[in-house]
Specification:
Length: 325
Amino acid sequence: MKQDSKIYVAGHRGLAGSALVRGLQARGYRNLVTRTHAELDLIDQRAVREFFQRERPGVVFLAAAKVGGIAANESYPADFIFQNLAIQTNVLEEAWKAGVRELLFLGTACIYPRDCPQPIKEEYLLTGPLEPTNRPYALAKIAGIEMCWAFNRQYGTRYLCAMPNNMYGPGDNYDLQAGHVLPALIRKFHEAKARREKTVTLWGSGTPRREFVYSDDMADACIHLMNLPEQQLAAAFSPQQPPLFNIGHGKDQTIRELAEIIKRIVESDADIVHDRSKPDGTPQKLLDTSKLSALGWRPRVSLEEGLRLAYASFKMGTDPIFPGR
Ligand code: GDP
C-alpha cells in the first residue's frame, strides 16, 4: 500500500471498520474512501458495481458484515447467511472487475470447527463440524475465504483474509440482545452499579473460554499484512493454502473470569449469577497466531488496558447504544 493509494474501507462505521480508518489515518494514509449504509447498500449488486466503477479504489478493506453475538446469530440465521454472502460476493466481484488487486477480507474465529485442538491453527479450517449457534455466519465467511483464494489463483490478485478472535473496542454494540459478551457485560455491570442492583446475570455456565482482541490491535495487524513485501508474504504461505491469517491476543479466559475483571474495572459490587437456560456456544476459541507473529506482528493492548479504554469510551457516550441517551 502506498501512502497515496486510494483505499476503500467498507463498513467504516462498525467496530472493525472504524478501527481500520483510525489506524490508516494515524499512519498517514489520507486517500480514504468510505460510504455509509444509507449512501451505498452493499447488498445491492448494481449499486456496488456503480460505486467501484466510479471510484476505482486501489485497495479495499472489507470490514462490512452482518455481525452479532450468540443470541442474534440464533434469532436471525437467515440474515446472517444471506447478508454476509451478498455483501462479500458483491464487493469481491465488483472490486476485481474494477481492477482492485489488493484486498483484505475480515472474518471471524468461528470459521473453525467447534471441537478443534487449541490454540487453533489456520490449517484446521474445514477439518470438522462447526458450532451450531453460528454456523450460518461461519459458512458465509468460509465462502468468502474460498472466494479470495479462488480469485488469487485464477486472476493473480492479492486478496488476504484476516480472522480476528472476539473483537472489542470503541464503537462496539452495547445492545444486550444483539451484541457480544464483552460489551454486554460492561453495560450490565455499569447499569447494575448506577441502579444499585445486587446481581448481574451471565448467560450460560460461564465456563466457555474466549480470547479478546482490541480493535486497534486488529487494525494494526491488518495494515501490517497489507504492507508486507511480496516476497515475505509468499514465504508465509503457499498458493496451495487459503490466504488466511489468525489475529489473536495470545491468551484466553473463562467468561466468568472476564466478568470478574469487568466487575473490578467498573467498580461494581454486584454478585454474578448465571442464567443456564442460555447457550454456552463453543467451549473454547483461542487462536494460534504464530503465522502472523513470524511476519513481525504482536498485539500491544492488554485485556486490562483494552477494557479500561472500552469502558471509558462507553461512559463518554460515543458508542451507539448508551444508557444515558
Ligand atoms: P460467541 O463467542 O460467538 O459464543 O458469542 P458471544 O460473545 O455472544 O458469547 C460468548 C459467551 O459468553 C457465550 O458462552 C455466552 O453464553 C456468554 N455470555 C455470558 N453473558 C453474556 C451476555 O450478556 N451476552 C452475550 N452475548 N453472551 C454472554
